[in-house]
Amino acid sequence: VWWIPLGLACLLRARETLEARWFAALGASLVGATVSCFYHGFFLATAVAVLALATIRPSRRLLAGYALTALLSVAVVVPVVHRFSTSWAPADEQRDDFRTWMSRRYELDTYRGAALDPVELFRPRDGAPDRQALSYTGGRYLGICAAVLALLGTLAAPRKAAPWLVLAVVGLLLACGTVLWWNGAVAAIGGGRVVLPLAVVNRALAWAAEPLNFPARFLVLPDIAVAVLGALATRWRAAALLVPVALVETAWGDLVPWPRHTTTLPTFTRPTLRPGAIADLTVFTRAAAPGTDKVGQSWIARIDRSEEHTSELQSPCNLVCRLLLEKK
Residue 154 is inside which H or E element, if any? Predict the structure, then answer.
């Protein structure tokens, strides 16, 4: 996730100096974030777009720099995303054009653990959470002190704080998912659910790559924005005293208890191997050899993306298990 603050630092430096190398560095950060994880790349692209639009000014060098960034990133990201999206789709799938795809009615999927409930931002944990809650709902507690720091930063430097406030609002809105959850239940107004902007964004992403199944991860954007606003608040020395208090409060109220659990890998004993060579074990293939049936095509067509599928699993579906055996 460090790609996101790194990319934003490149953006700020590029806007300040208007040098091509910093715009190129921003494009490289976008590429690196997308290749490492589709979520991170999309989060960074969202943050860059919001901050760039919120601070746009009539400057040819600035606009040329943004065009250079877009050209460098799109030239690499589009082929990667295309390869990623087609690897998970059935080989015989007929994809509609974008306008037809967006105009169709579709069912909105929403899961309690995947989206942010705004109440969770200021409600500390109550009791020992279960394993699923620890896995999916940690890191949502913002805390009163952090919110106060953000407010003080806004008052200390309103013009510098304004773009980061916009980023925080956009991140919170997208983190709430496709429909609004409130206090543990789907909110309803006039007998219908409150549909949020991510429903349209996810529909478009499903056509180009894949939808964002865990929108609560958008909280990385308001978290970064609050950190910047808190730094602005330290212009007043008294506000700096609130920083350690905010850190302690966040650690105390978050769903994942402090100290964080660490994982210790077990000790493995080296097995005794017979003389051998490379064994190529193909799990399944997308294209069959000439003169044979299309092995795996119907199986692939029946695969649905589960709720637990995330973009960290960026491997093609023609997986090959390669076992290397050598004599010691």
Answer: helix 144-156
